[in-house]
Amino acid sequence: MKKRQWRMDAALLRTAVIFFCLACAPFPAGSAASANYFEDFYNGVEKFSGLPGEVNELKKSYEQTLDELDRAKQSAKAYEEQNAKLLEQNRELAQTVNQLKDESDRKDAKARKFKNMLITVVLLVAGYFIGIRVLRFFMRRSNRKLRR
Known about the structure:
By secondary structure, the protein is mostly helical. It has helices at about 1-25, 35-145.
């Protein structure tokens, strides 16, 4: 019996606590439902009437974007043409540089050849005079030996 009494007291206590919590709990404000059909209709019409303006803004933005894209394409085309011209000039300059380098190499080769020829001529002339002096020296010596 005591056990049964205790269960009933616990159930009563739980019921009281739940009831107290529900009675003291703050109710959310503005939970009342309202059906403003006219206000909803007015807001819908207002939003719908604002759509053409937004569409016009989007069209203008789209046209501006297209214009910017066209300008970008034109500038890219101009840069491409300028790049082609610069490549052609670069090729011509490279060809000119190669021609100047070849000419410079030919001049250097000609100068080396002339320098070698000049050194050879000087050595031949010096060798000729030295050879004549040596020949005279030996001829005099041999003449002295014969005279004695």
